[in-house]
Amino acid sequence: MHSIRRAEQRSQPRSLPGSIADLRAALLGRVIAPEDPDYESARLVFNAAVDRRPALVIRPADSADVSLVVSLARTDGVELAVRGGGHSQAGHGTSDGGLVLDMSNLRGLHIDPARRVAWAQAGLTAGQYTAEAARHGLATGFGDTGSVGIAGLTLGGGIGWLVRKHGLTIDDLLAAELVTADGERLHVDSERHPDLFWALRGGGGNFGVVTRLQYRLHEVDTILGGVLVLPAAPGILRSFVAAADAAPDDLSTIAILAPAPPLPFVPSEHHGRQALIVRLLYAGDPACGDQALAPLRALARPLADAITPMPYQQMYAADGSPGRVRMATRSMFLDDLDEHGEKAIFDRMQAQPSPMSATQIRVLGGAMARVPNAATAFGHRDRRIMLTFGAAYQDPGQAAIHEAWVTDSLVAMRPAAHGVHVSFIGNEGPARVHEAYPEDTYDRLAAIKRRYDPTNLFRVNQNIVPDGDVAAHPRASELRRGLPGAGSD
Ligand SMILES: Cc1cc2nc3c(=O)[nH]c(=O)nc-3n(C[C@H](O)[C@H](O)[C@H](O)COP(=O)(O)OP(=O)(O)OC[C@H]3O[C@@H](n4cnc5c(N)ncnc54)[C@H](O)[C@@H]3O)c2cc1C
Description:
Helix content is about 25%, strand content about 20%. The chain is built from 16 helices and 18 strands. It is globular, with a radius of gyration of 22 Å. The structure holds flavin-adenine dinucleotide.
């Protein structure tokens, strides 16, 4: 009966449900409780190291459902976690004892190919959106992995395969619809609630539950993509950074220093030996592709060269469905990679606790860096390199070893490390959240948070603390003294 409620009825305020049965009756969407058969799968997120048991997982069917759940959490004082694709390293898409608002059933996508804009519901993944847009020869740039949710990725900024050509994902965000902490449904763009629109572009899930996002689309069809495997000889990291930095904006790269995988195109004598695995995408004029790639191919004789023309969406198909994995990561931005920094990375890889440890290097710049830092809440656009140490592992008893390896790796890179991408932070404490933002950006975010979420209802995230009390919440410079390896400045 409730499923046929008319739209105008649903826009009226309703009384909050007092029991699970009332809640089920009040919502169009699903409520999954611990006794339900799919509760075990519904409570899980991508990082298998996170094992939490929410009171309920709620899959809303529309923004009225979202508004009701937000009001319920606020009124009852229950912890509220918001989940898109569930890929938060910190496990922010789930909760112990709270409500999980799992947006995964909201997957509507409307593409207007003539205007090159799309309205996407917040439960879509990057791979789902990209496959649909590809039917029109169009794309919006997301990250490197298809199973990541578009909402979580976009709210953090979004660094992906088109970052040098078209900028961050937020540079293609035109508008958003969200439910605020008081349950109000807002449309935000550069003219309506511009402060909120600024904050959403990099400030994470701190300001409300996003239900729809409007993106600009670009013509992206056949690209040159794939993998170049290079020997991990001394100097290779620095020369890779120089070549990727000097490349045309059409070329974006993600390099991984790790043992070479036992793939058919990698000669077997190199399997398991340290290599620089360069994943890349060239989205320019196909006639100029070989010329653009030549400097990378000239860095060393490639152990394998599997770069080929392919449809853009195949960059996501390649990662398939990676499944859940236990992960420890530490990430940072660098302005440069000198001899000392390169040696530190090689030394850390020597100390790697498992063959599934890796160092990822992304050379940024291009369109991302042409937008001023203060234009959006993503305030580290001028950083040249993003460096991430990651350890994937299976045995939960080994968690401390892997956490220590990534933490020590971050320490080894200081003081060259300046800032961090908010989407790449784990459970690392408030000082690291401050590190994700220049100080004035953080202050501006906190002021907007005070306005839209003064009680910090949306706190299961990389949290912007609304309280302006500096004594209670020390400023970034004070907090940073407590960071691993930061010393006292
Ligand atoms: C394998 C892997 C690859 C990745 N690659 C990239 C990459 O190439 N580039 C990049 O920029 N990032 C990348 N990331 C990081 C990723 O962008 C962030 O972890 C992002 O937060 C994940 O979004 P999600 O919706 O999947 O995660 P979730 O865990 O579901 O959500 C993460 C947080 O986002 C917020 N959020 C999600 N949905 C909503 C919503 N509808 N409304 C309000 N808040 C919401 C909430 O605060 C939530 O806690 C990667 C992560 C993984 C695990």
